[in-house]
């Protein structure tokens, strides 16, 4: 049956233009491969596809795959990327001419495009959203700068010499000290693609950056490039500094949005042009166009900073796993602790485990002791005010004779939350019902949500006007420790007031999780306060995240043979026992087994749908799901938002994400209210 005879003829938008539109007068097509297939930068899900345009003869030499372009689409001019050149398009189609070539710089390479497509498919997202994360904004002036010397012309610096002290130690060639480490490096240097998960021992010469640098150096010896991804700017500073010292400045390029648009684009071009063979950066660096990629390294994969906060909310760990498969390169996932996802890779045999001999680990790690003393039962008012159990007090007093002491507290600020002293009810803002807190001892109570001050606050329950602390922050802890140890300097280190390093002289360093500075020679003691409060959060990953924060802080302490001690102030629990044994892998395996029994991630995959009630419910109903996929909901949240959850196996991931993309594209075409789709979200439960 003739389709054209059965259906009325209508103007059809195909390839971004009206197919009946004639070729514009005066446009001469390119003599060779006159069709350009382009990716347009659009945020509309139902337009997530490639479009064909005509390559004019005057642009033939410049229309190279990977360059930035401009093209007319739907009555407006959009930016995008030229993906490939073709000899022809669909029969009977008249193409619009390509608008212009924005830049001759090739920024979207084929291997990066394949990775972006794979990430978009895995997270039920759109290709332009992923490409937007992969390629930094263009800085025209940078493209005209004189190119640096080729990285291959710069010799790599030698590793530092081994220490001469007696007893068990990790030399600068420290990876072979791990069981399986020598074989991993040998395979890397020989051009192989080994995959490994490593829990790093503390107190290694050069720290963890030198350990990663050794693996990167072995990869460079095989003539291939390497990529290192770290969670945040603090880790990036350490990693970039060490890798640059070990490998040479011409070899290493640093990628971070926090460095500014111009420096970031300059470093990106060094990698894209092949002038730097090692890229180190934060989560977006996972897409760095490293030539002949041989190794990808991920540091602290469980850190929440690896999760992209913008759609499609991809995680750097999964991005690098996809890249490892697509490029056939080696993988090293390293950290002070171990995530359940990394342990799953080990248990399935996909990655090998590099383990430290137990005797060596005991010598390198500080001694860990647990104290469950209740602060409320302490008779000494000084200890009670400083929130120090007796064991922590005595340990700090002795350690301050030899060096600095690190005190980790759960929250920043002075008194981030307060209660009525008479009835113990939480104090709320009269304007927005947010929590009130104090910035210092003489401050007026202020709201943490809207910033409104409440100088004349009165408890609506009992009429009381006096306040007491419901939560104590780093600033208040520093103040109280200064009174408890009047002759010792007190240093605060928080996210708002970061410090990278502190001297090795006696001092008290009060820091929030993730902001602990490195001490010269290591901390003589590490006190982990607020343990029970940190574990009290009712979330699926609370234990795993808290153990990660504890081990990261404890790793900054001196080794047990040098007198290093860690005191954890918390009641008995699995994370506390894992810290005392320094057994992150064992804890991760127990967590994974428990989640398998309960069918929770990462034993299964998940997706969440959230949006206005009617739209979210309609989205869930439109999904064509197999019976084995578990759909639960809706959970009613604030402002009438409904949230649906899907639980499915890894084998069902591809078809299910394709179904999510289909329904999302249809909703977009119908201009329905937006429903946020998140696949494998962090902090789901």
What does this structure look like?
The protein is an alpha/beta fold. It has 20 helices and 30 strands. It has a seven-stranded parallel β-sheet, with helices on both faces. It has a six-stranded parallel β-sheet with strand order 15-26-25-16-23-21, sandwiched between helices. A five-stranded antiparallel β-sheet has the order 4-3-6-5-7, with no helix packed on it. Helix 2 (110-122) packs across helix 3 (127-134), helix 5 (181-189) packs parallel to helix 6 and helix 6 crosses helix 7. The longest helix is centred in the C-terminal third of the chain and has 17 residues, at 653-669. The chain is globular. It starts with a helix and ends in a 6-residue tail after the last strand. Residues 1-22, 147-172 and 374-379 have low confidence and may be disordered.
Tell me the layout of helices and strands:
Blueprint: H1 3-6, E1 13-14, E2 17-18, E3 35-40, E4 50-54, E5 68-73, E6 76-86, E7 100-101, H2 110-122, H3 127-134, H4 140-143, H5 181-189, E8 195-199, H6 207-221, E9 225-229, H7 233-247, E10 252-255, H8 261-272, E11 278-281, E12 293-299, H9 316-327, E13 330-335, H10 340-347, E14 352-354, H11 358-364, E15 367-371, H12 381-386, H13 390-399, E16 405-408, E17 417-420, E18 436-437, E19 446-447, E20 467-471, H14 474-484, E21 490-493, E22 501-502, E23 508-511, E24 518-519, E25 525-528, H15 531-535, H16 542-554, E26 565-569, H17 574-581, H18 584-598, E27 605-612, H19 613-622, E28 630-636, E29 641-648, H20 653-669, E30 676-679
Parallel strand pairs: 8-13, 8-14, 9-11, 9-12, 10-11, 12-13, 15-26, 16-23, 16-25, 21-23, 22-24, 25-26
Antiparallel strand pairs: 1-2, 3-4, 3-6, 5-6, 5-7, 17-20, 18-19, 27-29, 27-30, 28-29
Helix pairs in contact: 2-3, 2-9, 5-6, 6-7, 10-18, 16-17, 16-18
